Amino acid sequence: QIRSIKPVLEAKDLDVLYDQLTADESIGNLYVFFEAVMTWLVMNSGVSISATFLEKIIHVREEYEWSKISSDYLEKFIVDQGVNGLLINEVKLCSDLVEMESTAVRFPVVLLELPCEDFVQEIFRRDNIFKFTLPGVKYSGMEFMLLSSAEKDNEPFTLKWGLYQATNNLISLPRLHFTLRRCAAHDDTWQVIPITWCGAPTCDKTGNLWNWGYVKFHTKKMRDLKGSMMVGKEEVVAWNHYLSVAGRRVQLVCFVED
Questions:
Q1: φ/ψ (deg, to 5) at 190
Q2: CA 144 to the chain's CA centroid
Q3: Lesser CB count within 10 Å: N end or C end of the chain?
Q4: Looking at residues 202-226, what average pLDDT do you find?
Q5: If DSSP codes are grouped into helix, strand and coil, which group holds residue 148?
Q6: Each residue of 15-72: pLDDT tens digit?
C-alpha cells in the first residue's frame, strides 16, 4: 500500500508517532510500523531510541499478533549515515521482533530486477502484470499477480497497484510486504530501500528524473535533465537520500508475512 508521508511528518516526537500508528487500523504488519519509525528518524536526526520505546514496539507486535520481521530484511536495510542505525542494531538483537530462523519467510521473492532506466519504464511508464510464486508448502502450486497501472497524463499519482490470485485455489490472499532493493555501488550486495511511507512517485517534465521518497531514479546523467519536478494532486515528497543512477540494478521484492 502506498501511503502519504504526511502522518509521519506531523508527529512531533516518537510517542506521538506511536500513538498515531497504533490508532491506525489500516496498519496490518510490523514492517509498515517499523518503516514509519525509521522514516521519522531520517526526518529527525539526532533523536535516540530508548529501551522503553523498543519495549512498546514489542508490545504492539504481540497485541496485534503480527509476524516478525525477516532478519535478511534488516541485514540489508540501508542505513542513512547512522541516523537510523541504532534502531536497526537494537532490533536485530531482539528475538521478539525478528525471525532469526532460516525459514522461507526470511528471504524475499524477487518480482522484477532491471537496470535503473529499464526499471523506471516497467514500473512507472507501463501497465504491467508481474506473476510470481511463493515459497513454502502453504502456497505450493499457486501463482499470484501484482498488477500495476502506469501514471497517466503526466499525473504520477495515478500509479496504482493490486494483488490478485492467478490460480483458482480458494484461499485468502497472502500477506506480503513490498519494498525496493538496489545493488550497492561498491559490490554486488543488495540494499533494502523502504517505500511504504514515501507516497506516490513524481517525475520531472522530461520523465528522466523520478522521485520516490527515499529514492531518486536517474535514467540519464544529471546534466541532461531539464525542467522542474511535476506536482501531483497530493503533496510531493521532496526529501531524498539515496540515488539509483542509470545502469545500477534495482529490484521490486516482497517478503511473506505469514
A1: -105, 145
A2: 19
A3: N
A4: 59
A5: strand
A6: 999 999 999 988 989 999 999 998 888 777 777 788 899 999 999 999 999 999 998 8
**39: its cell numbers:** 522514516
Q: Which residues pair with 252 in a beta bridge?
A: 112, 180
Under DSSP, is residue 178 helix (H, G, I), strand (E, B) or coil? Answer: strand
Cα 2 from Cα 35, distance rounded (Å): 12
Cell numbers for 88: 536497526
Residues 6+ apart with CB under 8 A from 99: 67, 68, 69, 70, 71, 105, 106
91-112 burial by CB neighbour count: b if 16+ within 10 A, else e?
Answer: beebeebbbeeeeebbbbbebb
Determine the Cα angle at 63 with ends 58 and 64, to 5°.
105
Most confident of 16-25, 133-142, 229-238, 241-250: 16-25
Q: Which three cell numbers stand for residue 163?
A: 494483488
Cell of 252: 521490486
Q: What is the pTM of this model?
A: 0.83
- Tell me the three cell numbers of residue 28: 496490518
How far is 130 from 23, CA to CA, in rounded Å?
Answer: 33
Residue carrying the nine cell digits 497530493: 234
Measured torsion, CA atoms of residues 253, 67, 107, 169, in degrees rounded to the nearest 10: -70
CB neighbour class for 178 (10 Å; exposed up to 12, middle 13-18, buried from 19): buried
